[in-house]
Design goal:
2 helices; alpha+beta; about 80 residues; about 35% helix
């Protein structure tokens, strides 16, 4: 996966802000975990594990990041999915 080049400093600051809000939410017994994010062009796609979609929206609001859409994942596939049981 390529590194983020010139944007690395801004992304580091955003990550630090996000981690701080996540720590606050954890202290409030809110179950949300940031797995990772993909930066693609002018969009960022963030992957979370959370008890409810509302927690992701709350994290976005408290962090000051836009979250225009939250899509629950129903299942995950990968190359191993192709293998027989």
């Amino acid at each position: 996966m390529p590194k983020c080049g010139a944007a690395a400093g801004a992304l580091r600051e955003a990550s630090q802000k996000s981690n701080g809000v996540l720590a606050e939410m954890k202290a409030e017994n809110k179950n949300i975990q940031w797995e990772h994010s993909y930066v693609a062009g002018d969009k960022t796609f963030c992957i979370y594990i959370a008890d409810a979609p509302g927690l992701i929206a709350e994290h976005a609001e408290r962090s000051g990041f836009p979250a225009s859409k939250v899509t629950p994942v129903k299942c995950m596939i990968d190359p191993v999915t192709a293998e027989a049981d």
